[in-house]
Amino acid sequence: MKDGDVRHGVYLSHRAALIDYATPILGSRDAAEDIVQDAYLRFMPARLQASTPEQTLGFLYRIVRNLAFDVLKRRKVETRETSRDVPFWTEPQATPTPEQQLLLCDQVRIVTEVLAGLTLEARVAVEMHRFGGFTLEQVASHLGISITTAHRHVRSAMLQIAVRLDRDDG
User: Fold this and answer.
1) In the structure, what pLDDT confidence band is assigned to residue 63 with cuts at 50, 70 and 90?
2) Which percentage of the chain shows pLDDT scores above 90?
3) DSSP string, the chain
4) How much is the pTM?
5) Which of 44, 52, 61, 59 is nearest to 8 (CA)?
């Protein structure tokens, strides 16, 4: 019996199992059938050093797996290329209603009033942490205070702002 006949027999007897193997990888039975067919086309003319049908079958499974992962990579690249999001600044922005704009301005005024009523150290701590993105450690180092004190300043100010905003909304 020729090597090609053995390979063809291995392929035919395991075709359904190969499709079942590739289906969960690809997420589609149709795609799996295509991959198994491609694998057969690569498998038949390949020069094999396999001495047993098990090694031949293992080689066939490896071809199926590699082809399936190649398809997944190709899909990922195609998806990335076709779904490039446009920059946010090119899309029309929702214009707030006059009521929304007034509410926002009122909230900013309240926050400004609360911050103005804080001690200089507390105001700097809040502005650095909440608006500047500094860590509490950096705030404490800049102000020459402990991290606990910096945290207390920020927490106290944020609580005052929340209470004022809640009181004025209600």
Assistant:
1) very high
2) 57
3) --HHHHHHHHHHHHHHHHHHHHHHHHT-HHHHHHHHHHHHHHHTTS-----SHHHHHHHHHHHHHHHHHHHHHHHHHHHHHHTPPPPGGGSPPPPPPHHHHHHHHHHHHHHHHHHHTS-HHHHHHHIIIIIS---HHHHHHHHT--HHHHHHHHHHHHHHHHHHHHHHH-
4) 0.47
5) 44
Are 106 and 168 in contact, with CB atoms under 8 Å apart?
yes
Looking at residue 156, its amino acid is: S
pLDDT digits (tens, 9 = 90+) for 11-41: 889 999 999 999 999 999 999 999 999 998 8
Q: Which of 25, 24, 8 is nearest to 60 (CA)?
A: 8
**Is the separation of the CB atoms in 60 and 10 below 8 Å?**
yes
| pLDDT beyond 70 at 106 | yes
